[in-house]
């Protein structure tokens, strides 16, 4: 059965996206040319402009692909947390599995944060902010479940994302069966961040209670 023009256009656009991801993992997106991408995709340079205005527009479309994959990863992690005894380890394993299975997507985020145009960099930061926002929502649910409020869920989420992406980069060169040690390291850092956030909130609460205690009561306790 012959495919329609709409289906053909969608397939060609997809070929360009995949070619861009493959090449960006090898040499970085900012150094790519339209000719390189179209050659890799098996289409003519002229056909490129039927789908994208320029390389920047292709890059932004690639980042949309990254964002969708990351958000799907988060949803998968949340489903695992429901049945896993160690939700942090389950989330880290899911994250590293994503990195291993989608190296091109992860390299795009890691390698282009400081390169390319301002619009491209802004799109990367926007995707990262979405990642942080979804994690912050998870942390807010966690503090409700354990009835122990965190000092600042958003700040904790930002720290966890920074640690996960920095250490997660090591997974790019590791065989999947050797990721156990890396999983433990990332999980350890995440738990340290969460413990610090819980401790900071407990300290703040204790200080607030002390400030509300009448001076006569404090003097009486001191005398005793």
UniProtKB/TrEMBL annotation:
Residue spans of biased composition, Low complexity class: 201-216
Alphabetized InterPro entries for the sequence: DesT_TetR_C, DNA-bd_HTH_TetR-type_CS, Homeodomain-like_sf, HTH_TetR, HTH_transcr_repressor_FabR
Coiled coil regions, renumbered to chain: none
Superkingdom as given in the UniProt entry: Bacteria
PROSITE patterns assigned to the protein according to its UniProt record, in alphabetical order: HTH_TETR_1, HTH_TETR_2
DNA-binding segment(s): 33-52
Entry-linked Pfam families: TetR_C_46 (PF21943), TetR_N (PF00440)
N-terminal signal peptide: none
Region named Disordered: 201-224
Molecular function in Gene Ontology: DNA binding
Keyword annotations from UniProtKB, A to Z: DNA-binding, Transcription, Transcription regulation
Iron as UniProt keyword: no
Segments forming domain HTH tetR-type: 10-70
Name this protein carries in UniProt: HTH tetR-type domain-containing protein
